[in-house]
Amino acid sequence: MNSKTAELIEKDRRQLHPVYHPKSHAGALVIERGEGVWLYTTDGQKILDGMAGLWNVDVGYGREELARAAYEQMKTMSYTSNFSGMTNVPSTLLADKLAGYAYPGLNTTFFASGGSEANDSAFKTVRYYWKRKGQPGKVKIIARRGAYHGITLASTFATGIARYHTMFGPPMPEFVHIPAPYPYRYEGDLRPGETVGQAAARALEEAILREGPETVGAFIAEPVMGVGGVIVPPPDYFPQVRAICDKYQVLFIADEVITGFGRTGEMFGLRHWNVKPDILTFAKGITSGYQPLGGMQISDEIRETVESAAEGEAWMHGYTYSGHATACAVALKNLEIIEAEKLVERARLMGQRLLDGLKKLEEFPFVGEVRGLGLICGVEIVTDKESRQPDPALAARIFKEAQARGLRSRPLGNTLAFSPPLIINEAEVDEIVQRLGAAMDAMRV
């Protein structure tokens, strides 16, 4: 460690980091610049960022077009309130751009600063909608075990990962969790002849009936579960989910915070199954992380419910930075890059190359399963293939060894996640596989 790095690390002690523990932050990398898919530390290490920041730097690092878009907007008008009675040019243009962009019938956008705020906004909108519809008891949200929906108070308890709850309880009773559609290790009741998709969808219906349809406002799901271990659902799952939600008058929230804007090889993840949600939440890829921005899109029917309210029942929700002019200007330029460079198609092609390469690593006795969709892949580490016993300690060792070899992934329990920038090329995809394979080879010693 050089003196510059040591000095910065000492100053960094004044900062409380997300999901912080001193042990997890020991030996932190100090990043000073990025270019393409590469990160450079103050110690001179060059690292292939196999996580695109935090699933979000889709167009890669060092894009001058995005810096210029931010500069030009800041020079003109960096920020102004976007509350009722005022708007700004970039947020207006971005809202218009996004109308019908994900799915027909989702034509109205509310802007927030990130995914947690977007999901919190969705939960409040669910309550608002059902109150306006004369069913104020429909306040419960059904989510899945292993799901990650953010880290505000409400989104924390929508998240189905216990370690996020431990020190922030008691849990909020309005959030109910059911088994995830996890083919490799389904945790629910699987009946003879039933697919995992059918069983997981049945778990949703049973939860609605158990809680009472008159109490359930919405079901929320990531098209591909990210933090929960990169879980790709079976193809029969989401069509059944949509039908069940319709049957019991339950709104369907698609959390596309990770999967939106091309990550899975479709512009939005649910398109893989031709399923449309009632509310869609987004963040991350809309600006490729160059500015904080998130939001939700609502169906035309929900918009009409908001529009037709009496003044005393107004939708009293919003944030200081909703519709932030500079963030929206960057988003517009970012979407232009994604479209012009055909990055959705590239995610599909490079994702298949990455998945095929990682599957070759299944020859290692501790690699239980490799799975993925587009440029989001997971490598599950187990004690042995027969028992499928999770081995998070070994996954952590492989992660550290790979990072020492200049490859950044993310250990999620016993799964190593990969979601590199969508601009990644063939040689860089192969570098991910080669470096991870070398790290795994080192485990044999």
Name some characteristics of this structure:
seven-stranded mixed β-sheet, 37% helix, 2 domains, 445 residues, Aspartate Aminotransferase, domain 1, single chain, alpha/beta, 14 helices, four-stranded mixed β-sheet, Aspartate Aminotransferase, domain 2, globular
Topology at a glance:
Elements: H1 3-12, H2 22-25, E1 31-35, E2 38-41, E3 46-49, H3 52-55, H4 64-77, H5 89-98, E4 106-112, H6 115-132, E5 140-144, H7 153-158, E6 175-178, H8 196-211, E7 216-221, H9 237-247, E8 251-255, E9 279-282, E10 294-299, H10 300-307, H11 325-340, H12 343-359, E11 367-372, E12 377-381, H13 392-404, E13 407-408, E14 410-412, E15 415-418, H14 426-441
Parallel strand pairs: 3-13, 5-6, 5-7, 7-8, 8-9
Antiparallel strand pairs: 1-2, 2-3, 4-10, 9-10, 11-12, 12-15, 14-15
Helix pairs in contact: 4-11, 5-11, 8-9, 12-14, 13-14
Q: What is shown here, in short?
A:
With 445 residues, this protein is of the alpha/beta class. Helix content is 37%, strand content 16%.
